[in-house]
């Protein structure tokens, strides 16, 4: 009798000889696409209809914003409105069809919110710099293709867990790639860029995804060791000293990034991500306290050793004495936000171009000027909806690794948005990060589409596992016991 197998796997003795043959890669990819005869579940059909309706609504909102920006800027309706609308709806349909075929049970809110943020960002970029808008449109198409390819390649979330050490090596390699002579490029004091022929990009955007997945895999395996207090001092139990090793290692890595590449934003993002996943996997507040202590130590050391860190903290505390040099961009952004007031000057009617690098670092300030507090609140609400959906996906994931991976990717997305928006309004120092899906930049856009594709895959798995006959059989006794009252 065959023992010790599950999920429908056969014993080696019962497996046919043909199953031992290695399938070619194309055959493996083809299996990711369900056969036409496979009928989606009612839940999947409902989710895809909801997603399609929300995508149409977001496309109409983006088209309306495009018309308003053109009318405000040139007092006429754009002549390319029909092609623009076709492209917006076409890209939305491509990723929607990919979800129908490859992830039919994925959450229906992810893509519409992403499409809305991406579309509004493009409208603002097109209003400020038509050349960058054309490039951004091309990168959006590349991002949509990357989304589909990710769903094709990542058929199960555990496939990522299997290659965690390759992802770690790849992430560190991408992180250090800008330091290679004649490849890395120093822009605005940070060495984040690589320049290979006509291609320029920031490899750290992909590195953060690789490191996030490795962290999730590591914590899923080591969570018991990291959460158990086994060292007794007096009447108290404390964590094992060796459990502190990974934390100090990541802290050292972030300080190395800060020293070598002068990248405040990425160093902060990786460290906070590590602490967040460590707390989520163990539930121990002690890790947060230790992380805060190391963060304070890193801030103190960085402000004394690295001029860029000291400058950003200084202009955050008091930007006005440096308004003509170091804090010029920050002050102009504050003026733009103040000019917008409650409802803004109107799309196309403001002057956000006075803010340096407005399409990359300060696009949130551009929306603050032309759409006011109302418009920026809608953007913040959209990001909150995206983050809430990500954490909901993490709750319903089918494995510990999938839960931590979904939570970590959501933390990356949410922290990146928080850091840049809070920096523009002086709640936090500026970090140099860009606003996901909205700011100009191909590397960030493509990486974030890959991030959302992985979330869609985890969401699809979680919904499928919740509707299997085994899961339903487990739910029926629980529902019956919950409904039964006292006899």
The shape, in one word, is: globular
Q: Write down how many β-strands occur, each being a DSSP E stretch of 2 or more residues.
A: 5
Report the uncertain regions: 1-38, 478-487
Estimate the helix proportion, in percent.
55-70%
Question: In whole angstroms, how far apart are the ends?
Answer: 44 Å
Biggest beta sheet attributes: 3 strands, antiparallel
The class by helix and strand makeup works out as mainly alpha
Within the largest sheet, what's the order of strands? 1-2-3
Strand content: under 5%
Order of helices and strands: HHHHHHHEEEHEEHHHHHHHHH
Number of helices: 17
Average pLDDT works out at 83
Backbone CA Rg: 24 Å
Description:
- 67% of the residues lie in helices and 5% in strands.
- It has 487 residues and is mainly alpha-helical.
- A 3-stranded antiparallel β-sheet has the order 1-2-3, with no helix packed on it. It has a two-stranded antiparallel sheet with strand order 4-5.
- Helix 3 runs antiparallel to helix 4, helix 9 runs parallel beside helix 11 and helix 15 runs antiparallel to helix 16.
- The longest helix has 33 residues.
- It is globular.
What key attributes describe this structure?
487 residues; mainly alpha; 3-stranded antiparallel beta sheet; two-stranded antiparallel ribbon; 17 helices; 5 strands; 67% helix; disordered N terminus; disordered C terminus
How would you summarize the topology of this molecule?
Elements: H1 25-31, H2 42-74, H3 81-102, H4 110-128, H5 130-153, H6 158-162, H7 164-176, E1 184-187, E2 190-196, E3 199-201, H8 204-227, E4 229-233, E5 236-239, H9 245-261, H10 264-282, H11 285-305, H12 307-317, H13 328-340, H14 363-395, H15 400-424, H16 442-466, H17 469-483
Antiparallel strand pairs: 1-2, 2-3, 4-5
Helix pairs in contact: 2-3, 2-4, 3-4, 3-5, 4-5, 4-14, 5-16, 7-8, 8-10, 8-15, 9-10, 9-11, 10-11, 10-15, 11-12, 13-14, 14-15, 15-16
């Amino acid at each position: 009798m065959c023992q010790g197998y599950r999920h429908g796997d056969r014993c080696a003795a019962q497996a046919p000889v043909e199953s031992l043959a290695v399938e070619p890669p194309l055959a493996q990819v083809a299996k990711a696409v369900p056969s036409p005869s496979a009928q989606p579940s009612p839940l999947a059909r409902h989710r895809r209809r909801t997603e399609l309706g929300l995508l149409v609504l977001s496309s109409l909102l983006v088209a309306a914003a495009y018309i308003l920006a053109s009318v405000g800027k040139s007092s006429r309706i754009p002549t390319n409105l029909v092609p623009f609308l076709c492209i917006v709806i076409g890209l939305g349909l491509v990723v929607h069809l990919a979800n129908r075929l490859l992830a039919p049970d994925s959450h229906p809110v992810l893509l519409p919110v992403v499409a809305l943020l991406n579309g509004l960002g493009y409208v603002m970029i097109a209003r400020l710099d038509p050349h960058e808008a054309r490039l951004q449109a091309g990168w959006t198409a590349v991002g949509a293709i990357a989304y589909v390819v990710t769903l094709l390649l990542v058929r199960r979330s555990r496939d990522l867990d299997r290659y965690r050490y390759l992802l770690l090596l790849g992430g560190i390699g991408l992180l250090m790639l800008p330091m290679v002579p004649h490849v890395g490029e120093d822009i605005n004091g940070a060495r984040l860029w690589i320049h290979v022929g006509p291609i320029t990009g920031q490899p750290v955007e992909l590195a953060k995804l690789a490191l996030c997945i490795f962290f999730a895999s590591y914590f899923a395996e080591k969570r018991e060791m990291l959460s158990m207090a086994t060292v007794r001092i007096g009447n108290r139990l404390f964590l094992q000293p060796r459990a502190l090793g990974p934390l100090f290692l990541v802290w050292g890595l972030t300080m190395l990034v800060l020293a070598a590449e002068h990248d405040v934003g990425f160093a902060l993002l990786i460290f906070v991500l590590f602490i967040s996943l460590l707390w989520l996997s163990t539930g121990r507040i002690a890790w947060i306290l230790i992380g805060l202590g190391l963060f304070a130590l890193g801030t103190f050391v960085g402000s004394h050793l690295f001029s860029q860190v000291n400058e950003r903290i200084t202009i955050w505390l008091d930007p006005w004495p440096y308004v003509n040099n170091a804090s010029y961009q920050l002050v102009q952004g504050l003026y733009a936000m103040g000019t917008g007031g409650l409802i803004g000057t109107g799309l196309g009617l403001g002057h956000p171009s006075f803010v340096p690098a407005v399409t990359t670092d300060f696009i949130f300030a551009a929306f603050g000027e032309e759409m006011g507090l109302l418009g920026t609140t809608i953007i913040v609400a959209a990001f909150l909806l995206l983050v809430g959906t990500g954490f909901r996906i993490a709750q319903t994931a089918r494995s510990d690794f999938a839960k931590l991976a979904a939570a970590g990717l959501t933390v990356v997305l949410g922290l990146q948005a928080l850091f840049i928006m809070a920096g523009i309004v002086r709640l936090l120092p500026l970090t140099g990060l860009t606003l996901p899906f909205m700011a100009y930049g191909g590397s960030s856009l493509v990486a974030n589409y890959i991030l959302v594709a992985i979330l869609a895959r985890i969401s699809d798995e979680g919904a499928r596992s919740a509707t299997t006959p085994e899961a339903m059989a487990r739910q029926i006794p629980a529902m019956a016991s919950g409904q039964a009252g006292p006899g």
